[in-house]
Request: fold
Amino acid sequence: MKTRKRSNAPIFWLLFGGGGMMAALFGPMLVFITGIAVPLGLLLPTGTMSYPNMLAFAQNFIGKGFIFVVIFLFIWHAAHRTFHSAHEIGIHGGPLTKLMTYGVAAVVTVIAGVVLLGLGF
Amino acid sequence: MSKRRPYVRSMDGWWKKNPFYVEYMIHEGTALFVAAYAIVLTVGLVCLGQGEAAWNGWLEAMQSPLSIIFHLVLLVAIAYHAFTWFKLFPLTMPPIVLNGKKMEPCAIVGAGWTAGVVAALALFVIVWGIAA
Reply:
């Protein structure tokens, strides 16, 4: 039996697709809430992102999962797209390009995972 | 040794020559803004992990005019990502068959945009519900 090397492309493509979908569905509203509405005190109740509220959210099983999925999928989506678009401007995916895209995504994933686990349940 | 120096046409700025390719580069470029936002959230998460003082420092930083302007740019870029993500669905998704008929491209795009608006409103209502 000849063993054939399986391509890892579907994994990265799936992360790209999943992240693109998450960013398309929730990205604009998340940016609006965390970056505009809460800092300016618009629309949402005061203290929406207060320390006790956010700590409780990050310690809740669903909240923790949501934070991780958003960060994880957004960064892997961006990494994959940037890696392939770099080709269009003449940067042809070498080890450095991979480090700057997938490498950054891996580091962000580890940081997010470690902090979320450290916050407890 | 070969002394041949064949002419190779430069590909620099190829995408600037056609509006279709310019749009392509812009919608691919939204990925940089998605990455920037993921990093902003990760910094916030690290601050949350460090305790109340660090978290309040992050909240304060998010209130700076520069941060507000940056997030307005992120909002435009990521909204454009959402707009084009669904607009490309007829090309990127396998054909959807409903009642033995292939779904029209404009119906697929319309359903995608509708899903995007519904998801955004649902998220807002959920956040409101948790906070209130």
The helical segments of chain A are 9-40, 51-59, 61-86, 95-118.
